[in-house]
Specification:
The structure holds 2 protein chains of 2 kinds. Chain A is mainly beta. Chain A is built from no helices and 11 strands. In chain A, the strands form 2 sheets. In chain A, strands 2, 4, 5, 6, 9, 10 and 11 form a 7-stranded mixed β-sheet that branches. The relative contact order of chain A is 0.33. In chain B, a hairpin with a 2-residue loop joins β6 (55-57) and β7. The radius of gyration of chain B is 13 Å and the shape is globular. By secondary structure, chain B is mostly beta strands. The chains are: A mainly beta, B mainly beta. Chain A binds chain B through residues 31, 33, 35, 40-45, 48, 56, 58, 91, 95-98, 100, 102-105, 107-110, and chain B through 4, 8, 32, 42-46, 87, 89, 94-104.
């Protein structure tokens, strides 16, 4: 399977715990995006990377959230001291970058986080 | 005001019907426009890009009116398999940048 993969697919954690999610983009894609989706809403942008550089962060990304893409390949999203309001689907997407043929963003299956 | 607004539905239509979805966006600087489809508990997938000249892909037709900041999607001869949530999406740049999604419009096609 050469699509975007995410791990884990589901995570249940207790309030106050830290969680980390992983995203593996399509191999030739140099842009990687994180979105969050809650029930009944469309995905909301969190942050994105061009290779290893984090180019933009949403105001939604509080100090408890950190994302990395250390080698310009896979990315991790960590949430510290989780709160019940963090419960959502966390979606990763990847795309080619500027100057390339297509900007289509391909989404992974998501990580569903439940904070109890 | 939300950046991208859609009627959440649900739209319940019989198989074979024609259904239209509308969407408005607030930022006149938006440059790229898309419709994504999302099946229940699945990831969004690109259905089609939307151009000012309008574009068609089989039973699907998308239109963009920049002056009114309005985007539409028309589905003809709807199939049971068209049942999904349709997300209106805009981007400020020509592409390769963050996407802003509407809340989605739910479509249920019935026998």
């Amino acid at each position: 399977d050469t699509g975007v993969s995410q791990d884990p697919r589901h995570k249940i954690t207790k309030r106050g715990q830290n969680v980390t999610f992983r995203c593996d983009p399509i191999s030739e894609h140099n842009r990687l995006y994180w979105y969050r989706q809650t029930l009944g809403q469309g995905p909301e942008f969190l942050t994105y990377f061009q290779n290893e550089a984090q180019l933009e962060k949403s105001r939604l990304l509080s100090d408890r959230f950190s994302a990395e893409r250390p080698k310009g390949s896979f990315s991790t999203l960590e949430i510290q001291r989780t709160e019940q309001g963090d419960s959502a689907m966390y979606l990763c997407a990847s795309s080619l970058g500027p100057g390339q043929s297509s900007y289509e963003q391909y989404f992974g299956p998501g990580t569903r986080l439940t904070v109890t | 005001r939300k950046e991208v607004e859609q009627d959440p539905g649900p739209f319940n239509v019989p198989e074979g019907a024609t259904v239209a979805f509308n969407c408005t966006y607030s930022n006149s600087a938006s440059q790229s426009f898309f419709w994504y489809r999302q099946d229940c508990r699945k990831e969004p997938k690109l259905l089609m890009s939307v151009y000012s000249s309008g574009n068609e892909d089989g039973r699907f037709t998308a239109q963009l009116n920049r002056a009114s900041q309005y985007i539409s999607l028309l589905i003809r001869d709807s199939k049971l398999s068209d049942s999904a949530t349709y997300l209106c999406v805009v981007s400020l740049t020509g592409g390769g940048n963050k996407l802003t999604f509407g809340t989605g419009t739910q479509l249920k096609v019935e026998l």
